[in-house]
Structures are given as structure tokens and as C-alpha cells.
Request: fold
Amino acid sequence: MPESTALVKGTLDMLILRALRWEPTHGAGVAEWMRLVTNGTLRVEEGTLYPALRRLEARGMIESEWGASERHRKARYYQLTPKGREWFWTELDKWERYVDTMNRVLRYGTAGSIRGR
Amino acid sequence: MPESTALVKGTLDMLILRALRWEPTHGAGVAEWMRLVTNGTLRVEEGTLYPALRRLEARGMIESEWGASERHRKARYYQLTPKGREWFWTELDKWERYVDTMNRVLRYGTAGSIRGR
DNA sequence: GGCTTCCCATATGACATCTATGGGAAGGAG
DNA sequence: CTCCTTCCCATAGATGTCATATGGGAAGCC
Reply:
């Protein structure tokens, strides 16, 4: 069983939006998806997830309604809005640029051609 | 001139340690290095950098002493400790694992083989 | 009826980063 | 030698995200 890693701040929103890509899902389902999909390396606590969902909804990235879960519990189902879907791709793009810069600088020294002073 | 991006939390420490890889450098020099090496895309504010340097020193990752800058100003020169050097590589490794997981999940769906429910 | 499970929710705290501000010390202009 | 600018360090306050701790409501089971 691989140990789990703390989330890097700023990445949770993208993960949530990705979890909702296919169909409306309730909070516990999002957490479950994250756990399964990363083989348990990335987990989100309830106290982290629910505020994040409310933030995303307040910003119009997702919307929600009450429903019943597969196990007959009252559950709030979230789904992506068009705005959220679009925002996901722009965020992903920014993230990938950042990672690329980090990779070059940290691993290979520079993004340009500086060395030493 | 490319616009600059906000730092992702948790990445500044690695960038600082990387900046100090070759020789002792003062705070302003670290900021300058970061700007040059990323072609201006990654910048660090003074109010962010100096507390970060003090945190790293408190944790024994770097150590410092007063000196004179190239321009004859009083400057505090920081250098890596062996502990800091080692820690850099473990952090880099963790970061790369995280990025790899994110990449697979966000871009290609899963790290395993889940889809839908 | 009491216990457990499922799902939602908030309060509280920790912490990194940004913004704003200021100070000391050296150099240059006049 | 005085004023102004530049260089470098430093901290206070605000912001925002994530972790921890806690609890509650509702369904199902014994």
C-alpha cells in the first residue's frame, strides 16, 4: 500500500473538475475517485473537499442539487458548468507550463543559458 | 516580455536551494537568478523571499553570513548545507512523482484503469 | 431502539505567498 | 557636504488553501 502524499496547493480544484468530467457525482464519490485513480497516493480529507466544492460552486465552475446516492443516502450531486469545463483547460495549461519551467530549471539548470554568475 | 506567474506553493524552497547550488548568494541575487533563469516567468517578491530564506535557515537547510555585495552593499550571503543539498533531491523526487501522477490523471484519465463509475 | 454506515458540513488552526511599507548604507550629482 | 537614488534586508498584515477535529442527519441492520 503506497503511502499518501499531501496535496500541492492549487491542484485540488483541477482534480475535482476532472472527477466531474463524465457525470454528476457527490462529494464522497469525488474523494473515492481521487483515491482510486491515483492508486491511493492522492487523498482528500472531507474537511478539505467540501469547502473546495462550495468555493467552486460560488465561482460558477460547478453546480449542484440534492439527490439520492446509490446507497440511498441523501447526497449533493455536483456537475461541471460550461464555464468550469473551459476553466479546467486553461488551468491545466497554466499548470503544465509551470511544471515545464520547474523541470528545466531544477533538473537541467536553466530555461535559458545562465550558469554561475 | 512574458507575463509572470504566481508561484505554486511548495515550490519556492526548491527554487531557492537550486539557486544556491553553485556558490553562496545573497537574497537579491537569488531573486535575480530566478528571474533570469525562467526568462521572467517566475518571480519572487521580497516579502516572500526573505521569510522563506529565514525558514530554510531555521531548518538547517542553508546557512548565512554577512558580507559585501558586488556593488559594495551590506548583504547576507546564503549557502547550502549538506543537509539542504540532500533534502533538495528528496524534495525534487517527491515533486516529480506528484507531477507525474497529476499528468496521468488530468491529461489521460487515470493512473490505473477506472472510467465512469 | 440502539448501533453502524454513509454523506455533508463547519470551526479551528497551520502555513506559504502577496502586498505594502520602511530603513540603513553606499554612491553619485551638484 | 548635502540631497537623491539605488541596493539590499526586513517585517507586518491580509489572503487563501489545506489539514485536523468534530458533529449531525438519515438509512439500514440486528
About this structure: Chain B touches chain A at residues 5, 8-11, 14-15, 18, 22-23, 33, 36-39, 41-42, 92, 94-99, 101-103, 105-107, 109-112, 114-117 (CB under 8 Å). Residues 6-7, 9-10, 12, 44-45, 47-48, 51-52, 55, 71-74 of chain B lie near DNA strand C (CB under 10 Å from a C1'). Confidence is low (pLDDT under 50) at residues 112-117 of chain B. Residues 11-106 of chain B form a domain with the Arc Repressor Mutant, subunit A fold (CATH 1.10.10.10).
